[in-house]
Specification:
Elements: H1 3-17, H2 20-29, H3 37-57, H4 60-82
Helix pairs in contact: 1-4, 2-4, 3-4
Length: 85
């Protein structure tokens, strides 16, 4: 594996894992009142576009990390829309 691919995977891992504490806290407290709906709508759209871009150019680090990031961000968005604060 080439160095730039490893760096891309490591960077994507860090930025993706950063969402885990928010997902866990929101799930545990069943509260998303302090989460911005607008921010997560825009963010999920952006991540979806990054994923599309990664697929179009065939870039594994972009594809893998954005799939996981999108799942985590959509989880938070789902919590925001379903948990009644």
């Amino acid at each position: 594996m080439e160095t730039f691919t490893i760096i891309g995977l490591m960077a994507g891992f860090c930025t993706t894992v950063a969402f885990l504490p928010q997902v866990m806290k929101t799930w545990k407290t069943k509260s998303a009142k302090d989460i911005s709906l607008g921010m997560y709508l825009i963010f999920c759209t952006g991540v979806g576009l990054w994923l599309t871009y990664g697929i179009m150019i065939g870039d594994l680090p972009i594809i893998l990390t954005n799939v996981v990031t999108l799942v985590l961000a959509l989880s938070i968005l789902f919590f925001k829309l379903t948990f009644k604060d």
